[in-house]
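Technical note accompanying the year-one report. For the benefit of new consortium partners, we illustrate the data format agreed upon in the data management plan: each record pairs a sequence with a structure-token string. No post-processing was applied to the example shown here.
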Amino acid sequence: MVSTSPPQPPGNAVAAGAALSVAASLGPFFCWEGWSPGGGWRPLTDLDDPDVIAKRVDSARVLLCDRFQLPAGAVPPRVVASVLFLGIAARLISPVLGAAVVGEVLPVPRRDGLWWRPVDGGPLPVAYADPVGLPTADLDGGAVGAALHATAVTGVVAPLLEVFRGRFRLSPQVLWGNVASTLAGAAGMLAEARPEHAERAGRVLERVLDLAPLAGAGSVVRPDPARARRFLVRRNCCLYYRIPGGGTCADCVLTPPAERSRHWRTVLDAG
């Protein structure tokens, strides 16, 4: 069982707003907005309600069917729930990773200090209020990874994972594999946007994926020892392939090794 106690600010806590602003420059998945009254924001803790999650899954199911030109109901709700959870987890983890690596402050978010806003598609908008964090400039990648695991992963994402698991009877291995995918995806996007931080992002990723319950979710691979860019090979699947026409992701256990290697080479050659 993963502890889901609210993360506590470190004794040497500093303001994290500037670091989050730096993270936002990496792309939309790394952006948290500053919260203000109004604007349609809802507390993140609203997502603890299985009925709220079910409504989000229903909306996402309609969008997926439209995108793939499928008849209504062609995509199983469990598949949609897995994909939706992956996207929400990415929005809760990526900004913390970006702020810690590029902004040199790891935010210590509390779930009651985060908000979300319903949208029809794209990255879920997330807002924060008065964030504090842990200075990371003097920490190695392993220490940053352990801190990120204790805060964003177990303190913020794990409770939401339990809601999806219980409401849609999803395997915890699949859901934690989704978290591993979000971490690897964020580290990869960070490495591509800021190559000078690629090695640090890779070390943070390796450390987080060494810790339970993420340990065993997949293997971190460095195809070219001369390049800092890491990739993930999952030991399970997010279920996206069960959408007719969806296929498999590059990190999926079902992706043929030759296809995966071609993807890695394409990414490395582009960088």
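Partners are asked to follow this layout when depositing records. The chain has a mean pLDDT of 94.
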